[in-house]
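Worked example 4.2. Below are the chains of a multi-component assembly; read each line carefully before continuing.
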Amino acid sequence: MAHGPQPGFKRWLYTTNHKDIGSMYLWFSFAMFLLGGCMALVIRAELFEPGLQIVQPEFFNQMTTMHGLIMVFGAVMPAFVGLANWMIPMMIGAPDMALPRMNNWSFWILPFAFAMLASTLFMEGGAPNFGWTFYAPLSTEYAPPSVTFFIFSIHIMGASSIMGAINIIATILNMRAPGMTLMKMPLFVWTWLITAYLLIAVMPVLAGVVTMMLMDIHFGTSFFSAAGGGDPVLFQHVFWFFGHPEVYIMILPAFGIVSAIIPTFARKPLFGYSSMVYATASIAFLSFIVWAHHMFTVGMPIAGELFFMYATMLIAVPTGVKVFNWISTMFRGSMTFETPMLFSVAFVILFTLGGFSGLMLAIAPADFQYHDTYFVVAHFHYVLVPGAIFSITAGVYYWLPKWTGNMYNETMGKVHFWLAFIGLNVTFFPMHFVGLAGMPRRIPDYALQFADFNQIASMGAFLFGAAQIVFLFNVVRTVRGGRKASDEVWDNPQGLEWTVPSPAPYHTFSTPPAVR
Amino acid sequence: MLKGFNRLFALLATSVLSLPSLAQEERDAERWGVNMTQGVTEVSQTTYELHMLIFWICVGIGVVVFGVMFYSMWRHRKSKGYKAAQFHESTAVELVWTIVPTLILIGMAVPATKTLYDIYDTKEADLDIMITGYQWKWKYDYLGSDVSFFSNLATPRSQIDNQQPKNANYLLEVDEPLVVPVGQKIRFLITANDVIHAWWVPDLAVKKDAIPGFINESWTRIDEPGIYRGQCAELCGKDHGFMPVVVKAVPQQEYDSWLAGRAAEAAKLRELTEKTFTFDELFARGEKVYNRTCAACHQPNGQGVPGTFPAIAGSAVATGPLDGHMNMVVNGSQVNPAMQAFGAQMSEVDLAAVITYQRNAFGNDMGDTVQPVDILNFKNKQ
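Applying the procedure described above to all two chains together yields the following structure tokens:
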């Protein structure tokens, strides 16, 4: 038993193997992606035309809230943890994660957290309906009773994330193969190391803010109630002190994945490795001092507005460094466009578009017109869908042959890419227009002049959803069989993960490799 | 330049997609709108110009960056036999692409800072209006006068439920707009009664959160008489999408006579408190009040929403002792904050009418009437 998995169900329940746990994270996150996606489709179906057709406003608000929570905490974050579990030990030449039992636990509490969150849909008064940002007092005095379950599930997700982050830091700092100095680590490892520190810094802040809510709701405190001497704006400050680093938690590992894929398919080393590391660290630092740009309209003093505006604009500099680096890596390379590269190139283009709208949103006076409109919705979906989702997809296609030993179907991969690419743009690009034209976000029904673009966006959403079925089919097919992949899989890719056989054996690097 | 672009885009989009029109009335000018409004104030104009400046800078950067990228993707392909160069690391290049963007950012920050100072200058206003957000309506108080009223969504439920064709201003129409004079500096003092709302009129470029316990300030000076429409911009619960803002800007004289008229009405309403109404008068008035104020939660048929909003039909309160019913409506619910204290929101006449209505509608058959003076006595007892 010591050298192989236990048979049957127990393998998955008791496993401490980083590859098993990585796979479970990835499958779990895909299930959540489909669940959150279905909720998005309910939203888009209701918004297909003006008037209320499919759902009532109460349920619509539950859908927007649950879609956001599930996508952020259930789909994107666990997917990155899954990739980290699979790849970080293999990238640094370690036999496993540093804390394998905690690894098992940090995964297995997640399904319970999300089962509890999803169960609120069936409770009296319905699921949380106050938006994924759950601003008080809408989420405290005016919340449905299920808010308590929401708070508890957030606590569990936070515990899971913190444990995962501790594990990743412990692994990276203690278990690198001899010769693998920090500045030789693959960028995916670097970006995850920085992400893990962000997680440890801000998940307790989230836990704090939901606990203050819990106290307000059940124990008579008034942290966020003006009537009791509290402050509703305090909630927003605390929430966004978590929330802004959180959005970088969802994008930094993506930078690492794309920085691995582009050099492979450009057949050319990454242009500026060390500047990429420093840019990542700068973005992480800046993420702590820009939170109030989500709150330009709360009525801060002008000095506060100016500080947060300038700090936010500064983020464009390290982010620009990253984009310029990827393009310089591609420049005068010898490029091929397999599915992982297609997703990575789309990542660079669309993430940059999201960055442009982000820069526009940073300009406080203009933000007064953009704030809480569909322009914001377009912005963060342009950053998160091509940013997080496309990079995760690219990573899965890139490493799937290593995991399974089989090549995925390239044609199907390309079909998936083009459907997703077109679907995404058809869905989210028109949202810029309706947002600028004055459509607020989080509304179940809208004025007539927004009808046409909303109809287009809804059609795009269903196309994007359908594309994911192709993905699922392709992955399942590859897991079950297919053309055998070589150990290198691609054309001379860099990194220790390509030195082990395909499929990667259950235990890799039981003796550390030599790193030159 | 952008107007032309808009029109071109609209033309392309309509001809390529040729979707069936949903709008009941053709409003081609507003359909397919792709850009921010220039608005009708100096601030909205500067905001628009700032927005366009940043937009064109982004377009410029995009053209350069994506130009290089697409060129490279076109030329530097393995399938074209292109051999990969192996260059990497260059401090000079890295410095350039750090410093140049920083300079561009400074170029953006200067006009943005100037505009921001302008927006924050709420001093020396000619007129103060207090705006209070409620779930799900706005209250306007003309400070220094007796005039104060609620502004509710005017779009009938039947249009929302697709039983009737939708108006041109579907969801953007109210029973009583905010009336303001043109050419005056108007200061808005913005707060909320329950949860956070945000008062937004795109044409004025005013968007400010309405926060319970806080009073935010904002200002505008409208040059053009007209009707300007906006919406609540902060998620505030179930009917967040159904609390529009309508501002009617009129010439000073018209404003003055309007204000005088409203003040006279308010005085008359106070006199009515003394009057004794018949059951039919109260019932008819109560039905109107109910549909305006209560029906959003308790539903037009009085059945409520099970699990969320209690029914009026057959309810213990509406078919119980009168004092309990008055207490609920005047002071709100002790357990459910969604049931607000309406005592200060409505006149005694309206309170009496709606309580009478609730006790005798939806199959409730209490047969009693409540007079405005009863409400006044109840309030005084507290």
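Take a moment to check your reading of the output against the notes. Residues 42-75 of chain B form the longest helix (34 residues). Residues 240 and 340 of chain B are 16 Å apart (CA to CA).
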